[in-house]
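Re: the multi-chain job from yesterday

Posting the exact lines I submitted so nobody has to dig through the queue logs.
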Amino acid sequence: MDDAKIVELYWERNQRAISETASKYGKYCTSIAKNILGNNEDAEECVNDTYMKTWSALPPHRPQMLSTFLGKITRNLSFNQYKMKHADKRGGSEIPLILDELSECVSGIDNTEKEIEYKALVSEINDFLGILSSEKRNIFVYRYWYSYSVANIAKICGIKENTVSMILSRTRSKLREYLTERGYEI
Amino acid sequence: MTNEKLYEIMNDIDDNYLEEARKRMDTYTATRKIDTTHKKRVFRYKTWGAIAACLCVVALGATLLNNKSISNEPHPEQVQVANPLIEVNSVKEMADYLGFDIPKLDKEVSAYIVIVDDDRYPSIGRIEYADGSTFNMEYGSGDISGISGGKLAEEKTIDDVNVSFYTYSDDTSSVKYAIWEKDGFTYSLTGSEDLESEVKSLIK
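And the result, structure tokens for all chains:
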């Protein structure tokens, strides 16, 4: 079913909206949740919560891209659950490795006193992604948004795992440099 | 900022970038399904093709035996192969290609080279020195000396880094080289007269 028709079902408060969402995007959301949480049970819980949140959000929202709207809710819920449960590093989650990698880009200081303009920083990150090649941007998004393993990213992109690791390492350095040049002390 | 906060902030990456990546994933998934079907059909074509090829070889062989006037002149046509070695002028240029800095010894350099891997990405930095020694550096792990069959002479710890020293000998020559890994990179130094001292300089 077309996204616009699914969104219309939400607006009509027609419960078919949930089943149509699950049918079209269930696997997509589950994959995002599982990459973060590392197991099917917790992932399923988050995906169900995603449907509930979407039901509450539509209306008044009318998302242009239903896939990314759902994906962002799933990712947010999954990461919050991960933080609450302090997921075991021995589990299937990629998060411990991903957070280690992202440590290269940040100071590690929780500078809540010094407020960093959240929207401006997001805008800068998006501008940075805009100057990357499509392949490098995809690899970055697969790792730090979709939380895919390096092995899976290598398969999707048809390149070696070592090449993926190298691209990610360079992109992280460039991101840090990009933000520092623009006056962000992150 | 903490790493967790950065991960959270990334939630708001532009929808178009997320969709671009998702579509690529869908293409990959769809291609895997098509490949499975394709292999079953191709098998039959390959079988008949192989039989036809054998018949052609037999026919050609019979013709050649009867015809001795075929020219043995080599074909001048050349196939262009992408050059995996890029020679540059400085360590800075190497860093521009590779995205990481290359340490350099304080001696005369004969060439600065960037090696492109099978995936078309510059991956190895190589400095060839005038004294015949060669230094390699790559992101990752493993032996990148390019030498096969060397014998481990000793292992040492230099500035908290484990360094393996090897000797390679054949009928005509013998060469000493060292390999080590540090901070996610792998290194090798080959043919140096003062191997241990130069490895130490590079590690610093």
